[in-house]
Design brief:
single chain; alpha/beta; D-Maltodextrin-Binding Protein, domain 2; five-stranded mixed β-sheet; 14 helices; globular
Length: 325
């Protein structure tokens, strides 16, 4: 099926799906790592349980209804009820989300979770798009992103000079790669394997799942833990959907979303370690651990520029305020 469908054809597909006795939330998503798919499925189980079957969730997985950008548009239009997308993509719908693509924003995974679980920091961000027809209801860990390459390892900033790297469609990610001396090429995840294989790209940046699930380890054998970003995924829901649910069922859906995040935390850590082992043993990928200090220094101008955007900078300050607590 084509990854990009018109709203009319998507609606036709959905209408043709088996009818459910309960209120059914239509949840579409692109291809994802196993723990994230499990967490989305857990969300559906929790919704059915908490609403006594009054609300159920029907899934349209693996880009059946389009890529992440198309899915956000469908949620905005109310054609589907929910989706899960990368925070990097969200920046193009609400600039404030660009904060989460800033390099070296989080000191550690513990710092990441502390921030993301802080409603005082996150709820205003989630509510930013409410006037556009949708809002975020929770997040999932998408791991730490690092550079991986086909020809040579990245062991210093100098090694990046002149190389072409795939980045998400995020102005912040593009700026980061430019400051590090490489050439950013924004493209969808589905195009990366072939582009690496054909030499259109010298490398990409992502977590370990890209090496195994997307099989990039077949064409890129060098993974360097510069750990430049921890960009969360976000679960989105149409405001039309929230408005049509009863107060009780709305609360149940929101509670189920938060609980699915707690479930995701449990399965993510073990899974990512297993993928690292698989990357080395099955794909022959080698891992490198460069000194990140010079990477951090190279991207510092981004934080100076961020001061000119007060809304983003206030979120950045809140995030940094809880570092080390």
């Amino acid at each position: 099926m084509l990854k990009s469908l018109t709203a009319v054809s998507v609606a036709a597909l959905i209408v043709g799906a088996p009818a459910a006795m309960a209120e059914t939330l239509k949840f579409a998503y692109a291809s994802n790592a196993t723990p994230t798919v499990e967490a989305m499925q857990k969300f559906g189980e929790l919704v059915a349980e908490k609403t006594g079957g009054d609300v159920t969730v029907q899934y349209f997985p693996d880009s059946q209804l389009g890529g992440e950008r198309e899915l956000v548009e469908l949620v905005k239009a109310g054609t589907i009820d929910m989706t899960k997308v990368s925070g990097g993509l969200m920046e193009s719908f609400a600039p404030i989300y660009g904060v989460f693509s800033m390099p070296y924003l989080f000191d550690s995974e513990a710092h990441f979770y502390k921030v993301m679980d802080d409603a005082g920091i996150m709820q205003p961000v989630y509510d930013t798009t409410s006037g556009d027809g949708f809002a975020a209801v929770t997040y999932y860990n998408s791991g730490a992103r690092s550079f991986y390459t086909s020809e040579k390892p990245i062991e210093s900033v100098a090694d990046l000079k002149g190389l072409k790297f795939r980045v998400m469609q995020s102005p912040t990610s593009i700026k980061m790669v430019e400051l590090l001396g490489a050439t950013p090429i924004a493209m969808g995840q589905a195009e990366v394997y072939t582009s690496l294989q054909q030499g259109v790209l010298d490398g990409a940046e992502n977590n370990e799942y890209a090496i195994t699930i997307a099989r990039h380890g077949e064409v890129a054998k060098h993974y360097s833990y510069d750990v430049h970003s921890r960009i969360p995924d976000f679960v989105l829901i149409s405001t039309r959907t929230l408005d049509k649910l009863s107060e009780e069922n709305r609360a149940a859906v929101l509670e189920a979303a938060k609980e699915s995040t707690e479930y995701h935390k449990q399965v993510w850590g073990e899974a990512i370690e297993a993928e690292k082992t698989k990357s080395a043993e099955e794909f022959g990928v080698q891992f490198y651990y460069p000194d990140v200090a010079e990477f951090q220094a190279a991207v510092q101008p981004m934080y100076e520029e961020l001061k000119a955007e007060p809304e983003k900078y206030s979120v950045y300050e809140a995030i940094r305020a809880v570092a080390g607590e």
